[in-house]
Amino acid sequence: MNQRIPTVCLVLLTVIAVGVALYWLRSLMIPFVLALFFSLILSAFVDFAMRRLKLPRSVALAVTAVGAFVLFDLLAVLISVSVGQLSANASAYQSQLAQLFEQVTDRVPAELRHVLPETEFANLSQIAVRSVGGMLLGTTNAIVGILSQSVLVLIFVIFLMVGGDGTRKRASGVWGEAEARVKRYVITKAVISAATGFLVGLTLTLLGVDLALVFGLFAFLLNFIPSVGSMIATLLPLPVVLVSPDISTSVAVLAIAIPGAIQIVIGNIVDPKIMGQSLDLHPVTILLSLIFWGMLWGIVGALMAVPITAVAKILLERFEGSRILAEVMAGRLDALRSPDAPA
Questions:
Q1: Closest C-alpha to 99, from 73, 135, 125, 118
Q2: pLDDT tens digits for range 166-212
Q3: Counting Cβ atoms within 10 Å, is residue 56 exposed (0-12), middle (13-18) or buried (19+)?
Q4: What is the per-residue pLDDT across 3-26, written as a single tens digit (0 to 9) for each?
Q5: Which of 53, 78, 92, 122 stands the most exposed, by the fewest C-beta atoms within 10 Å?
Q6: pTM of this prediction?
Q7: How crowded is residue 92: how many other Cβ atoms within 10 Å of its Cβ?
């Protein structure tokens, strides 16, 4: 037990130092880690083309690269059109929000109206309208920021895919296990998330909700964030639904209820049945990893929190001194008990 205390302290100090370094180098590390996970997904298609279609590796790489480039262009067009639609409808959204706020203030009891003068209600209305404008601007800036890093991510992906020739066959030991488990998780999660995003986008499109395809894309991305992501993806269309003048109350309810049902069915039935306990991480560990990586790298960190934590756990459990931390990350707290302690 005396040996474990300094080991745990050293590991914690190392985590803090690494966290500071990762935050300082986030402008470079975020594109690199994104490229690493993209290369894991694309390598599955390369392996499929080599194994099933009997293509040479160079041809399989070229076909996969062309397919990925076409898919990226489609996503870029989708995002560009959606940003344009968002900007074009911004004034209508703000006007509708002002009307909703006026309807709410008209129902405020007379006693409260004496407490807050009419000028205060007007100020609150202006704050709400400016908040919507800030949200629209922030969304646009976030999308532009992600697209601005795409070139660097693409360069990293190309070098990782081309440089993986030959080295992938020799991957074994700790890194081989980590790569296999994370690759299985990322690919399976990507397929489940794609199905979720498609169903959500299709539902919102049929209901006539603005930016339906964008919300489907967000549902796909946020599904990589366990538990919290599905909740955010379900509530994300709510502001647009509320401020859209052409949407009735029944359609607004369906626009939230049906995607919510899709998220519940896939998240609680399909996802656990397919994924199982492939990464052997306790839910509390996943939640803490979301907070940690979200603080370091924002939304990108939250998206990649689970695979990164899984790699860290695999590395920790391979060394005697840090194996106890891996057991705690898996939720097996009995590992903290001293061997000499009574059961």
A1: 125
A2: 444 445 566 676 777 777 878 888 888 889 999 998 998 898 887 78
A3: exposed
A4: 667 777 777 788 788 888 888 888
A5: 53
A6: 0.70
A7: 14
